[in-house]
Amino acid sequence: MNLKAVLILLGLALATIFALVCVLLTRERGPRSCQHLPPEQEDTEDGQSLVFADLTPEEMSQVVRYLQGQLGVPLVEASRARPWENCIAWVDVQVPAKAEVLRFLDGGGARPPREALAVLYFGKQAEPNITEYVVGPLPTPAYHRDVTVQKYGGRLPYHRRPVTGSEYVDINALIQRELKKAPRFLAACCESDGTDLVVLTTAPRGFKSGDRVTWFVLFHSVAGTGYYLSPVGLEVLVDHGDLHVSRWQLRQVFYNGRYFASTGDLEQEFVAGALEVVRLKQPRADAVLGSMKPRNPPGSPGPLQLEPQGPRYRVRDNRVTFQGWSIAFGMNPNTGPRLFDIRYRGERIIYELSLQEALALYGSNCPGGMSTRYLDGSFGIGRFAYELLVRGLDCPYTATYVDRHYLVETDTPKTNQNSLCIFEHDSALPLRRHFSDSQSFYYGGLRKTTLVIRTISTLINYDYIWDFMFHGSGAVEVRVHATGYISSSFFYGRGTDHGNRVGPHTLGTMHLHHIHYKVDLDVDGQLNSLETQDMEYEFIKDPWSRHNTIERPYLRRERLEKEDEAAFPLNAPMPRYLSFVSPNANKWEHPRSYRLQVISFAGKHLPTSSSMERSVSWGRYQLAVTRRKEEEPSSTSIYNQNDPWTPTVAFADFINNETITNEDLVAWITVGFLHVPHAEDIPNTVTVGNGVGFFLRPYNYFNEDPSVDSSDSVYFSSEEDVGACGANHLACLSSAATCAPHLPPFHFGGFLNL
């Protein structure tokens, strides 16, 4: 072999080795990172959505400094304020009146002044009260006005204020002092001296206006697990209505079916041998009921949602845009998520979509359980929407996470990091499709992808997952799932009349979850009417022979004229089609409309004979439609929890048979479910089957399904090459998606602000 041939072979060998090394190195590096492209829809908004924006931390601080300098009374920081002192309870944005906002958004009017709503507890006055002020203009406040009487028709009594953190601290100290009077009983019943027992509040607090008397349920506490499943059978009734903590008293004690005047009496009965005691072992962390610690090591990773070219939505300030949708989002510290100015293809569909209240009403044969009717707005649905802790679990890993800020029971703004997430969700279900196997052969379809805005509130034991979804068909879906721990009572006697036994001494107590929403629809303009459609059968002779009978369905349409007609009782049959209609018609001469479709399994509403029913009278109706009024911004009040007998806001008063034809209308919607806890609720209630909500769907609003314009659509015939990108873009995913998503490093800050 000559030298030239040797050199050629050597060169080929070196080239082969170099190529193999490159392949191996490329494999070791893994796939390339996905390249993010700008969203298809350009965001041309000029900051108009900021008219709805939550307050910034700087604005909150400015309001606090202004009030401290201008009110002329001493203000103590709420986190350490005693009942006889004055404090700033909470601050939120004051959303301008709708007419002002629409003049700005649609009519070229001036931007409304930015204002805050500040709520103060005045304990150090001749007549202690709650006062609400509007403070503005922001960011540099120069005025404040008292709006309490204007909003509520009178002063707000001091006893209606929610219980503060510092008040709970004082209550717990009182209970601990009282427990020391029963050392031998506690050692026998619970292997405890009382210091390792935790108390859970109930509500409301008494039986008449002015009461502030609360049952507290005691549980064994084990670090790292939910104490809610470990009741010890002991409950105490505390009177904490006096302004002076030194005058608070423990009024009554309950244990294992018996009532006592004091812990001293309880101890005396025990020592005398006259008390039957259920002896509980101190629970061990490795065997406690309800532990959520994994029992098996991690397996292989599950499916991961991939955005090969980055998010197809855009978030700017408090506004998100996605494939024709535009939504302004925010969070009320009390009532939770709120959305404004929801538009599709440039047209406003909904002016306001907001959560109003979440009611949890319990049954039990123990006093704490049987008297519990939690109104979660008074505890803080938005305030307790903590960080969505685990990417890929609470929300998809690649979702966009947004911080929320609040000022409640403090003079310093707090931040719940990453407490709201936004993502596009692939439901793995066609939005629409058809395979044609007759006449001509073709396939057409569209994937169902949805924009989701989500937040999750932890309200003591329960976790509520709040979802707002926006579909390519122009539909809006609202859904809530309940998970977390059940609340429980100590199991004794006929406990199973009120639930199921889920542990050695634990009764999972029956309860209902009822959730209330406000939807201010503006369907093709502000002036709408309410129309129902349902089916009936008519019996006719067949027109071609007149010998046979046909049961022919026909459509019964009705236009509802008055509010009383549009108040549909909870769990009663409701028309299958109920639409908010515009005076304007589509191409086919039908009124442009949006249809409401409720998905709910609600329990029974509190009987109207109940002394507290008016405070939750929104729960009488699965749907009530009223004329929109600026003086009726919400169906309830955070002050209703501690004085449900004289409610600050009674929704039943909103329904006064006014005309609802061609008016600005609001839909008030109740959804919910009855929950009878069972063994499978341990350790946690699962979301499967525990989700309810409603849809708002276009009904003759368009001339055809708007999703036909989606660039995600697929269509090909039998004559086309279905593997070609031009005929079927999904055939190109193998090249378009050969990349690895950018997964941000895991960060956890969820235990802040606790």
From TrEMBL:
Record keywords: Copper, Metal-binding, Oxidoreductase, TPQ
Metal-binding as UniProt keyword: yes
Enzyme Commission numbers on file: 1.4.3.-
Keyword Iron on entry: no
InterPro entries: Cu_Am_Ox_Cu-bd, Cu_Am_ox_TPQ-bd, Cu_amine_oxidase, Cu_amine_oxidase_C, Cu_amine_oxidase_C_sf, Cu_amine_oxidase_N-reg, Cu_amine_oxidase_N2, Cu_amine_oxidase_N3
GO molecular function: copper ion binding; primary methylamine oxidase activity; quinone binding
Catalytic residues (UniProt): D376, Y462
Residues that bear 2',4',5'-topaquinone: Y462
Cofactor: Cu cation
Copper amine oxidase N3-terminal domain sequence ranges: 161-258
Positions of the UniProt region annotated as Disordered: 289-310
Every Copper amine oxidase catalytic domain range: 305-707
Ranges of residues in domain Copper amine oxidase N2-terminal: 74-143
Cofactor note: Contains 1 topaquinone per subunit.
GO cellular component: plasma membrane
GO biological process: amine metabolic process
The family this protein is said to belong to: Belongs to the copper/topaquinone oxidase family.
Protein name: Amine oxidase
